[in-house]
Fold each of these.
Amino acid sequence: MIDSASLGDWKITALRDAKFALDGGAMFGVVPRAIWEKMTPVNEDHTIPLATRPFLFEKGDAVILVEPGIGRRWSEKAKAMFHFDYADGHDVLESLAHVGRQPEEVTHVLMSHGHWDHIGALCDEQGVPNFPNAQHWMAESEKEAALHADHLRRASYRAEDLQPVMDAGLLHTFQGEVTILPGLRIVELGGHSDGVSLILLEEAGETACFWSDVVPTGNHVHRPFIMAYDMNAEKSYAVRGPWVERAIKENWLCLLYHDAEDAFGRFFMDGRRPGFQPEIAQKTS
Ligand SMILES: [Zn+2]
């Protein structure tokens, strides 16, 4: 089952790409295992199950893919190491087909940042862009990081994910903030990566927010729960606080990329700390 929500005239659908797993300690940063292991299942090799979950925003002629997904362009070694699992329709192209869309119909591909688990699905296994008619958008700083990754960034980026899209003339970049369509914008934050961005949809007095790795799962809303993967933890801590506060105050619909269970939910104050309330009716199976 694929879940959807509406925001004014927009339809928001939670798609699915491969399930995978990352080290639990790295996902929770300074949070002790004694605390995080009560929040999530833990595999034998200390990894925890995670989703890669693109979203589709549709209204009129606009068919907007929010995050391409992890994709299939991976070695068998990588697939085994990270427990890639494409079973039961966990593939972005299959998932699109399930909602009656062909990759050629996608008008925009919006990317929060360039990490491999977010944009691996830009191209097929032969390196051909999967969404040939779409304007592709990402922060300029992320393009730079992907194409010229230094030693510290090298494990998180693959230039070959982006290069074919650039060669096809499909990539557009921005600095700070860009409005894609009325009510739809990408806002660069940084912290987790140089230019990690939120993708915000505002219509009819309501807001939906794709949190990407700024809040990767419902267990990461509390401010100190910052991944060890974050390039600049101090900046992460500083930049995400006001956005989470605003999401609580204005009761935003929150879209989560990595949460193994829940695609949609709302942030709320759980006593003195922020928490996550899944939208039960829209729980991803
Ligand atoms: Zn990331």
Amino acid sequence: MSWWSDFSGFVRENEPMAKHTWLAMGGRSELYAEPPTVDDLARLVKAAGQAAVPIRILGGGSNILVRDEGVSGLVIHLTGEAFEQISITDQSVTAGAGAKLGHLVSQSTAAGLSGLETLVGIPGTVGGALRGNASAQGGDLGQCTQDATVMTDQGDIIKRPRSELVFSYGKSNLDELVILSGTFLLEPAAAEEISRRMQQIWIVKKKEQPMAHQSYARMFTDPRGMDAGELIDQAGLKGTRIGAAEISDRDANYMITDRGATSDDVLKLINLVRSRVLDRADIELELELEVW
Ligand SMILES: Cc1cc2nc3c(=O)[nH]c(=O)nc-3n(C[C@H](O)[C@H](O)[C@H](O)COP(=O)(O)OP(=O)(O)OC[C@H]3O[C@@H](n4cnc5c(N)ncnc54)[C@H](O)[C@@H]3O)c2cc1C
């Protein structure tokens, strides 16, 4: 009997990760789970720990590139009702880690609460956004995060108060195995005013992003005080193509892919960009995309 036979209702083998990631490419995960409740999640985490099986948590898959050879160990996807609730009390909004960030933004706005509108259009979940402190146009999720509930790799649940949390560009110290939910303290404002601001932000985003393409992703974080897209452009790489992956000719920090693109194409393109920018500007670009 395998260590996961007790969980066979929601654990399966050889799951194609392309189904669950924004870039829709890459291999399979050895084991894949969608636990229906927090209790099931805790039992699974403990059992995997006892069996020494490595665990990865999947949110919306919008910042993950899965290698063509796939992922060993267990991928846990926080999806379904138990993880996607959003509730609003006065100025405080609590969202499950599996809720879409876009739903958190739109529900807060509709309730006349301001603070999250700069995050409009960022794909993925609240959990992924908390882990990487999603940010845009000078605003980030950390700014209004009041507390977060997490689960350790022992399956214990802990509430982390604001006073313990540290957020910086692309990072947070929410580094326990699982983020379960977050609470955000927002400011009251007129819903029409927030919507107007969101629309303006959305127009700017649409200009930058190559939305007509099959799929696209941002490759690198911006080095301090600089713009990764400009550095890539200055290295003459706009439009460079390897296999079915190409550097966007709008913002060069976006990579676009056509049907048939493989993770190998994308990784080769990333390596080419890194070495050209290093040669030309003496700057080592850091990946924003996480490679599994
Ligand atoms: C078109 C496009 C535009 C983007 N624009 C922006 C932008 O403007 N600003 C920005 O900051 N980002 C941007 N991103 C990157 C991405 O959307 C964000 O990083 C997003 O917050 C990732 O969330 P996710 O749920 O998809 O996480 P995933 O990609 O699934 O995971 C990312 C990381 O978070 C971890 N994680 C996810 N959920 C949990 C959880 N519940 N508990 C513990 N760990 C977890 C994963 O293990 C992984 O390490 C963009 C991406 C795309 C494709």
